[in-house]
Amino acid sequence: MKQRHEIFFNQLEKIRGYLLKVADVAKEEAEVIPKGFKNNIRWNLGHVYLEQYMWIKNVTREEVDVPNEYDKWFGWGSSPENFTAETPSLEELKILLKDQLPKIKETYGDKLEEEFEPTEMWGMTTIEQVLIWTNFHEGMHLQAILDIKKCMNA
């Protein structure tokens, strides 16, 4: 793997670590939807996890190891209203997120620059481009979690 890709994965892991640190809340706090918000902390974590894989799937057109129900629970436009008894808990999501980047690195680390057909949305053609986008996306949801926590403590 190229040195710049090692540095890139290091950055992704640092941001993921910060997300998990910020999301280190009690189970009950993870379920709170403050006034003016559509989702809670648990939903934001599940959404970050799901979207990382969905964007990879969108570019590679390969199946990813995510149960179909995740889209119903955490996909774009979903909400905690869609949660069922089978929806992953806060702790389960934290484990999935902690394990996700090493799996992506192992699976795609040597394929970051491999060209695929352009995606319908935004024309991305490589895993590297996807990970740059999803890193930004993760930051948006990190901020959403920070905002939720701020409202809970107000």
Automatic annotation (TrEMBL):
Q: Signal peptide position in this chain?
A: none
Concerning SUPFAM superfamilies, the annotation shows:
DinB/YfiT-like putative metalloenzymes (SSF109854)
Q: DinB-like domain: which residues?
A: 11-145
Q: Which InterPro entries match?
A: DinB-like (IPR024775), DinB/YfiT-like (IPR034660)
Xref: Pfam families = DinB_2 (PF12867)
Source species, domain of life: Bacteria
What's the protein name? DinB family protein
Organism the protein comes from: Gottfriedia endophytica
Lineage, top ranks: Bacteria, Bacillati, Bacillota, Bacilli, Bacillales
